[in-house]
Amino acid sequence: MRFVIITGVSGAGKSHVIKYLEDIGYFCVDNLPPSLIPKFAEICTHSGGKMEKIALIIDIRGGELFKDLFPSLSALKESGMTYEILFLEASDEVLIKRFKENRRTHPLAREGRLIRGIKEERYILHEVKEKANHIIDTSNLTPRQLKEEIVRIFGEGKNFEGMIISIMSFGFKYGIPTDCDLVFDVRFIPNPYYIDSMKKLTGKNELVKNYVLNSNGTSEFLNKLGELLEFLIPNYIKEGKTQLVIGIGCTGGKHRSVTIADALHGVLQGKQHSVVIDHRDIEKDNRGAKR
Known about the structure:
By secondary structure, this protein is of the alpha/beta class. It folds into two domains: 2-157, P-loop containing nucleotide triphosphate hydrolases (Rossmann fold, 3-Layer(aba) Sandwich); 164-279, no CATH class. 38% of the residues lie in helices and 18% in strands.
């Protein structure tokens, strides 16, 4: 039997995840009171094999009842039941945007500021996050990409042994992304912005790509970066890290960082990891730009 506890911050995508798990044959229950987990697990074990894949969403919507989670998990362990914890995460900025777009109220901010509710929830959940088997940061994932990760981790009874790697190009003049684990500055590469024929183009354009990739030092940089990540990623996985966000920055986030991020994406694809890419600033101040 595979028994999964889904938790995490409000707005990170738990409702999406439970739908994806249902699609691959999991029996799912949303917002089960934590104190009922041991009894529910007992029912599942006596189902005659009809309930072999179980997923429960347990989060702070239960209020004071959430405090029963750890005693219930201890009871599961004592009974010999194995379980996994999936923790869903997202940056404060993304959570605020999602709540405002959906016009939803945060469970801990019904009469106060949204950011205070988010921070209070993070404090309440910090211990369960530390015990999680899988942590997925959905800040830069589309619903389709999130579904791919859920299927990869929980589908076909196989454990996902790779890592979710998010590569983000950005412009330093717009600020370094707050959720980056590693940041690399590619402003040492000559800037296509100062060449009239490429000024209004982006790093997606072949002319810009060729200019950036053929500039002095670019090839050596990509090789050394690839070697560094080849060393770091297995060691991160050993320490239990399941997601890595890599920031590639140039001045405006339109030319050099875009090309290098795409090149790095190509290097990392096909190495048992799931690699997604996001060009955060490619469209900023880019009226009339061509790709």
